[in-house]
Each structure stands twice: as C-alpha cells, then as structure tokens.
Amino acid sequence: MSKSINGTGVVAGVAYAPAVWVRPRPDMPQPGASIAEDARDSEFERFQQAAEVVAGRLQERAAEADGHAKEVLDATAGMVKDRGWHKAVKKNIAGGHNAEYAVVGATDKFVAMFESAGGVMAERTTDLRDVRDRVIAELRGEEEPGLPHIDGEAILLADDLAPADTATLDTTHVKALVTELGGPTSHTAIIARQLDIPCIVAAGKSLREIDSSTVIFVDGALGTITTGADETEARQAVADYKVRAEKIAQWTGPAHTKDGHAIQVLANVADGNAARLAAQSQAEGIGLYRTELSFLSANSEPSVDEQAKVYGKVFDAFPDSKVVVRTLDAGSDKPISYATLDDEENPALGVRGLRIARDNESLLTRQLDAIAQAASQRSDDAQTWVMAPMVATSTEAQWFAELCRERGLVPGAMVEVPAAALMADTIMPHLDFVSIGTNDLTQYTMAADRLSPQLAYLTDPWQPAVLRLIQHTCIGGADNNVPVGVCGEAAADPLLACVLVGLGVNSLSAASTAIAGVGAQLAEVTLEQCQEMAEAAIYSPGAPEARTAVRALLDGYNS
Ligand code: PEP
Ligand code: MG
C-alpha cells in the first residue's frame, strides 16, 4: 500500500529511485575527563592533523569541480584552516578539554558571532557546523559525514544539506532532493533550482521513517514523497515529465497562453552578474532587482555616484528592456548596517523596507537620485520602473510615487502587506504598476515566519487566503488600469503561474532558471482554463487541496 509524506515542494519535477540518506552528523562530544597538562600539545597536534586531512579532502574535491561548486569547496576548506578557529580550539585544549570537545566549543563561539552579525553571515553557520562535524568524525576515525558514494540513481534524503554537500551533486546519479528541515529559500532549495532537479523541503520528522534503499516517488510540484507507489504508474509519470522537460527546453518565448493572451515573463536578480545570466534566458526584462542585496556587507551608505555604478551594471544587461528596481528592502532577515535599526524585538514586523525612509527620507531620495542617474544613461526604449517594498497604506504609496515622479521615474509598489492588497482600490490611483511579493504576502497573511521549517505548510503561496488577496489586488489593478505583476517565488511554479494568470496577473518575475518552465506551461492552457483553475484554487480548503484540484483540472485538459 502506498503512503505519502507531505513537505513543501520547491522545485517541480518527479523522480522514482531508491532513497539514500546523507551520512549522519556525528554525535556531539561531551566534556570527558580533563587532558593532562603535558598531553595538551599533542592533543592540539591531533586536532591539527585531523583538520589538515579534512581540508585536504575538500581541496581535492575543489580541484575536480569548477564554478560555484569550486568556490564553495574552497571556502569550506578555508574555514577548516581558519587561524582564528584553530586559536579558539587551542585555547579550549589548553583549558584541559579533549580535541573533539574543544572543536565544539570553538565552533559555538563562531556560530554565535556569525548569528549576531545576522544576514549573509548568519547563513554561513551551516558551513561552520559542517566543518565542525567533519573534523570531529575524522578525530574519531568515523566516516566523514555528508554525501555517500552513489552508484546508479538515487533520491537524496537529509536533515538539511550543507553547501559543501550540494556543491558537487552529480545529477546523473542524484534525481531529487528531500530534506527534513529547510524552507523555500534555504540553500538546498536554491541549489536544486540551479540544478533543476525536483526538491522538497520541510518534510518533517516522518521522513526518518524512510530507510536508505527504499524506493520512493517524489513529486516536487505537489511536495509529496510516496513509498509503495505503483511502479508502472511511477515510471510513467517520470516518462511524462521527461516529455514536459523537452517542451521546456524547446520553449523560446515570449510567453502567452495557448489562445494568445500575452503574459510578460521577467527575471529576478540581485546584481549585474545575475542580470547577465538572466539576459541569456527568455526573460523579457527584469521584474525584480533586489538592490539591498548589493549592500549587505557595506559599512556605510555608498555615495549616489557609487550606487549609480552598481545599478548601471544591471541596466547594461538589458539595455533596451524593462527593468524594475526595488528600493532598499533593508531590515528583518536582510540587515544593512547603515539603514537598519538593531534593537527591534520583532524585525519582520518592524522598521523594514519603505518604513525606514519615514524617519530618513534622504536615504531613499539619494537612492532614487542614483537610480535616475543610472537610468539617464539608458536608451529611449528602455523602461526604468521603481517600486517600494512593504507599502501598507495609500498615503505611503502617494508619498513614494511623488518622489519618483519628481525624478522622472515610473513609480510602483510591492503588494506584500495584506493591508495593501485589501486597499488596492485606493493605492492603485497613485501608481503606474504594482508587483505582488508572495513570499512576504504569504508570511503576513498566514502570520507565519517565512524562515520557519515548522510552519512551511502555512507559508505556502497556494494558501487560498493568499490567492484571494492576489485576486483582490488584480481587481483593483484592472479597475484602475494599473498592471499587476507577481515577483515572489510563487511566480516560479508553473502550475501556480496558471492560477495567477487566471486571477488576472499581467506579468510574472522569477529566477531565470524557472522562466522556461513557466512559459512552456502557460503555452499549453487557455486564459479561460487559467480562470477555471484559479476558481478551483481559491475555493479549496487549503494549500494541498488547491494544488491537487488544479493539477486534476490540468490533467483533464491534456487528456
Ligand atoms: C516577496 O516578499 O515575495 C519578495 C519578492 O520580496 P523578498 O523575497 O525579497 O522579501
Ligand atoms: Mg518581500
């Protein structure tokens, strides 16, 4: 009998193969007896040797890898050799701890430091713990944790994957990724998206009931992991998906439904590099340039000229197209030293995005000046649209729009606070466009932290409550002749894209790797079918039911 576990599907696709668990992390060492004073130097040497072996292995793997994988492996090897970390271990050993326990203490210290720095630094704590585990395993003579050797095909299961594990994943063997923890924006999800293999995160503790070598069927769009699936049906589903993958490979854009209803498909980028990559995809332009990501490590505010240079690099990748620049979305999980308050109890509900400019308008106007300066170098055909994050009231929308118009910029707002969706009719008249940020709109609608793995079932943009707010926004847009886009992760899900178009969305902006999948899917359905799918989704009792209902309709249209 088949049995399914539900997680959060973050990359669509299906796979059928034996499960392989990533080798477990070692048990954490306990303090143990004190090391005699005259044995402490050799204990430290034992640590150094173990660290050298681990670093050597990572470097060997780095030498065989290239691009991003090489960078990740080199960086992890660098952490193993980090002098500050060695010094902290030495200090702990000098205090009488054995090497294993000294490694734990030293790592905890660095983890705390990285966590208090927040942002990108906080995300690197996974790497630190990974380094700790590898060295402890080596000290104990245990197998190195992480990826096992895989013969044939496998679906990788893990609590969460470390960057050093995912950096060298070979997709001829690894057909899908499933993790117990993680969320839609976790490292595992990002890597899976890049590799374009099905991925499910936040599958929960039940995942542990699946042993290595159990054959499982994974559906990345539905977020289901099934044991005991009918082999013939599962293999058929994989074969059908291959046909779909071919259609995706052949899709050239621009995007429209089967009956010719055009939907602009754009790319989400963080900097000039990502924009250049996007320019190689079918993206018609950029639908979300997250400017704050360029300044996460800046200690002071870059000058207008410096900022203009940074923005210019993104504009250069799309010289004649639309580029939607989002003003600084600092705060919450993206702290920026020169912009964010550092003493907030609840930063996701705090002074983030446009709210920062309320007491510091010149920070915003300097950014707008820089955007206008960079935009003035663009061709006459190029459109430069600018939107504010976290707009909650029509007063904020009006204020932002005036600042943009004074500088000849096209003003818009993100709809990611439920209040903005509910007040769409009063917000729209001030603006030339809006773009729905489904990541935050979902978090705030469902009152569920978007980074919480336990709440991933709520932070799912298929939640009918979220879809209804999107519908409300689209009605406000249509009534006021204001185009409505979606630029959250929802726009990357081909099935959900049909629903969004059915709800009245005019453009979709997603990671450039997701664009062809979305475009190819839209080409197979009519606008009326999209509307029927949207209706089914908003009247479903919950997110999984909405997905299943829409999938069933789509299968019906195709049969
Ligand atoms: C969103 O909230 O959906 C969005 C696109 O913004 P970010 O993910 O950067 O918060
Ligand atoms: Mg957001």
From TrEMBL:
Reaction equations catalysed: L-histidyl-[protein] + phosphoenolpyruvate = N(pros)-phospho-L-histidyl-[protein] + pyruvate
Protein EC: 2.7.3.9
The PEP-utilising enzyme mobile domain, residue ranges: 152-223
GO molecular function: kinase activity; metal ion binding; phosphoenolpyruvate-protein phosphotransferase activity
Annotated localization: Cytoplasm
UniProt keyword annotation of Membrane present: no
InterPro entries: PEP-util_enz_mobile_dom, PEP-utilizing_PTS_enzyme, PEP_util_AS, PEP_util_C, PEP_util_CS, Phosphohistidine_dom_sf, PTS_EI, PTS_EI-like
Tree of life domain: Bacteria
Enzyme class: transferase
GO cellular component: cytoplasm
Function, as annotated: General (non sugar-specific) component of the phosphoenolpyruvate-dependent sugar phosphotransferase system (sugar PTS). This major carbohydrate active-transport system catalyzes the phosphorylation of incoming sugar substrates concomitantly with their translocation across the cell membrane. Enzyme I transfers the phosphoryl group from phosphoenolpyruvate (PEP) to the phosphoryl carrier protein (HPr).
Protein's UniProt name: Phosphoenolpyruvate-protein phosphotransferase
